[in-house]
Amino acid sequence: MITRGLRWLQGIVGRLTGRAEPGDPEAARELFQIRYHALRLLLAANTKALDLMATMECAAAGGTTIGMPFVRSHCTALGVSVFQMVRHLDTLAPDKYSMLFERLEDIQHSIDHELAVYPRSTDAPPVLPLRDVDCDHIDVAGPKMANLGEVANVVGMLVPNGFVITASAYELLIAANDLQPEIDRLLQARQAERLDELFALSSSLQALIMTAAVPEDIAAAIEAAVTKIAPPASETTFALRSSALGEDSAEASFAGQYQSLLNVRREHLVDSYLEVVASKYTPQAMQYRLQRGLRDDDVAMSVGCLEMVDARSGGVAYTGNPSDREDRNVYISSAWGLPKAIVDGRFASDLLIVERTEPSRISNRRIGDKGTQFVLDPMEGVERAKVPPHLRRQQSLSDEEATGVAKLALRLESHFKTPVDVEWAITGDGEVMVLQCRPLAQSVSVDRGSPPAGTPPPLVAGGVNASPGAAAGPIHRVHRDSDALSCPEGAVLVLEQPLPRWAALLGLAAAVVAEEGGVAGHLATVARELGVPAVLGAGPLDALTAGLEVTVDATGCAVYPGRIESLLETEEEPRPATVDTPVQKTLRNVLRHIAPLNLLDPDDIDFKPINCQTLHDITRFCHEQAVREIFAFGTETEFPEYASKQLHHNVPMQWWVLDLGGGFKQPVSGKYVRLEDIACNPMLALWDGMVAVPWDGPPAATGRGFASILFEATANPALASPFKKPYADRNYFIISEHFLNLQSRFGFHFTNVETLAGPRPEENYLSFSFKGGAADLERKAARARFIGDLLAELSFDTEVIEDVVTARRTSLDHQNVERSLRVVGYLLMHTRQLDMIMADRAAVAHYGAKMRADLAQLK
Amino acid sequence: MAISVLLVDDEEDFVATLAKRLTLRRFDIFTATRADQAFAALNENPIDVVLLDVRMPDLDGIAATKTIKGSHPLVEVILLTGHASIEASLEGMEMGAFDYLLKPVNIDELVYKIEDAHHKKELQEGKIRRLAEQTDEDGSVE
After folding, report:
1. Architecture of the structural domain at A127-307
2. How many CB atoms lie within 10 A of CB A82?
3. Are A826 and A692 in contact (CB under 8 A)?
4. Which CATH number fits the domain A311-439, given the four candidates 3.30.420.10, 3.40.50.920, 3.30.470.20, 1.10.220.10?
5. Which distant-in-sequence residues (6+ apart) come within 8 Å of A438 by Cβ?
6. For chain B, what is the domain count?
7. Per-residue pLDDT, B104
8. pLDDT in tens, A21-63
9. Interface contact flag, B90 A16, Cβ < 8 Å
10. Of A80, A105, A763, which has the smallest distance from its Cβ to B100's Cβ?
């Protein structure tokens, strides 16, 4: 019985939108309500779809920072809105346009295809020995390890023994634990706009990966590879280095954004591997990808596992000045112990500048007071150790070693055919080993000259130009993570040590100043890539107190109090564009299936569902047909109460009103409705604008203007009814309490006004279109531009194509919509026949001035 | 009468926060963090609208939408999810979901959607009542 009752109920629900029996006013009322509700939902979905499209097009134009969650969520939300429009149209006209569902599905598949991650092969083995790797293995080993393999196996230089845990292993790890959907969900659901949210999101994502189970075959492959390098009983330890796909290009170095773990014991390799993989989601790496427009899902994390080198000295060599592309000397940063001291930017170091001449010559040197170094912890990991006093001010590599490192770096530059950034270490035996080699990102340095006379003396002078340029802002001092959370946009970051983790702040910062560090640190590299001026190694910064407004001249290595406009005015190389990033390209590709409007003319024979090629086409079709369907229902209905009424205002007028529900104060019988019976505020507001200022009658046309109208009136057959709509012959108001659609014909032109002005500002809109006229196209187009200009001045989003003006306002409260409707009402009446005088400049100016004055009064 | 809303999501914090915010806006809120709780709540209470997560450990939201629309055809389901998936959204809508909203959701938008979904349900109920009265008068239904 229950099942039978349910089936009966389901059957009824399926038949809810059918026709009512004649003579059943209650049924007619219900049908009107259901149909009006469907129309209202369709219009709300249309407004949302248009807003989403506009936001996406705006983002595609560049200038904003977007990630893949933006693209995916907008595509999904847009798809849902368009689906709703199709479904609501189906409620209004059951099964009549069902082809739209198919078109929508096809278009959605095309969009999905653009969003899909290029499938990476999991055919490659999970582990590859470094001796089998070279530059051809970038897609499996990641660029960092592929380059290191090339350095060892093709160039023939000394590198640590080791292997790569490949991108295939990463894919298997993610798939085996079904992590990707949850990662996507977290990224989408917790859109991290503030830094504290970013830190929380990063923590959740890293925890997700850290607690995953490494598949048995990957763990076994790691163990086998380790055993080949070192017998089980040996004390050999390892360095685990990230080698993410997409990392280490000149444009995007990802310097220091991912985790490297040093001196790891073999029994901890698998857990440490997970930790490095999880570092894909450090706050700074997430922020970096966002800033550079890199797709999160393009980044597969390969990990290099290299025998640990117990370095006597280590550092970084650049085959050019990173802050000045013109300077081609070799810059060597060096410290005692592990090179971590240099790349972390943590401690003082030596800088040696080696000329490219043969024989090599050290042209400049700056020897730091190296109080602390990183050394291997006897148990595991690394520790800080004091540098013996006699070594503190001693050069950490000999001149001979320095020229040797320079030669080695130049050989790599020659091999890779680009300036390079080489991380190196010198072993206890005096051998030089290459630990990493990547393209060097260089900035252009602009000479800004000296600050003008009268400029106060600098608060800070000295240090190194780690990223050229100048910027001003209030000082924000960062000592710990909690300071980072309160960093305001446009601040000058003042740091003691330029640690890589502060890179998460570079998207907000105007400039960076640090007591320690040099050009070779990771933070310096990222600052150069993001175009953030940076002075590092500047010594004590006590003069830079929090909140003080300063100007940082990184090129001149000085910080001045206040804003020094002359320093800020110099044209800098623009910050990296956000237009050609992978995310932007994906967005532009999906927009090809979304934004173009191909269905322009509703009366064209091709205005059909099958010809909808984009989501915009579907919205256009649904909107147009929904209004037609609701109109047809209202005018063809057999229930007099719900049929259209002729407006009666002192005398019967040439306006008809169709009430969808709530548009009349009470039920109206008979064939007339009076203005005072109207409850629809948008209609009353529009009417108010129409009658607010008496029309002076048609403008006095010039002889040529009038002749043009006569010619068009006789020669242009389309003038009889250009839109050929069933309701084109009369002026129709389709109304409800908050909704108005006006289709009207004033003389020779045609207008459509549609608005929703209810209690939900987010759904409210006012759209206006105007087309036609009697004069030639040139004058009609001039009138369209004239109207477009007036509306644009009144904050409408306006578009004019030939003689068609379309204008739209959205997300206003109902009072504002009604104010705008009065303006539109005025224009409807007062732009009549203006096309006649559009060739007469004086007349155009006269009418322009008059209308602006009238509109100012009306507002 | 207040609109009855059932929130189904395995994230307890999310459910608690959203329940609080919707209660402040005068909705009657029922909550479930597991599938069995959700179906029990649906059978035991006069639910108008279900807010359903698409992906829960013990529940596939898309399949659940189909089940709910089969057993309670007038109840409207709004999928509320962190999964920005075109495929899942289309599938959900095809199963009869009223809407597919992405987290983080704007509370005003969510309130509008609940009201719209409820209004749709009311219209359908009105129509069914009238048809039932008619069929009773005709004596054609047991």
Report:
1. 2-Layer Sandwich (3.30)
2. 30
3. yes
4. 3.30.470.20
5. A143, A144, A147, A248, A249, A253, A420, A421
6. 1
7. 80
8. 555 667 777 777 888 889 989 998 998 898 899 889 888 877 6
9. no
10. A80
pTM: 0.73
Q: Which residue has the tokens 């006093």?
A: A389
Supply φ then ψ for residue A687, to 5 degrees: -60, -40
Residue that wins the pLDDT comparison between A672 and A158: A158
Is the CB of B108 less than 8 angstroms away from the CB of A760? yes
**Confidence band (pLDDT; 50, 70, 90) for A253?**
low
Q: What is the pLDDT of residue A14?
A: 46
Residues of B in contact with A69 (CB under 8 A): 84
Which helix (H) or strand (E) element contains residue A306? Answer: strand A301-307
The rounded Cα A706 to chain-centroid distance in angstroms is 52
Using CB atoms, pick whichever of B85, B104, B108 lies closest to residue A76.
B85
Q: Name the residue among A69, A108, A184 with its Cβ closest to that of B90.
A: A108
Q: By the 8 A CB rule, do B41 and B32 touch?
A: yes
Tokens of A500: 């890589």
What fold does the segment set A460-569 form as a domain? Glucose Oxidase; domain 1 (3.50.30)
pLDDT tens digit sequence for A271-317: 999 999 999 998 888 888 887 778 887 788 999 999 999 999 999 99
Percent of chain A at pLDDT > 90 equals: 41
B24: CATH: 3.40.50.2300
Residues in B touching A111 (Cβ below 8 Å): 86
Could you tell me the residue ranges of all domains in chain A?
24-63+76-114+596-623, 127-307, 311-439, 460-569, 644-858
Q: How far is B66 from chain A (nearest CA, A)?
A: 13
**What are the residues facing A536 on neighbouring strands?**
A464
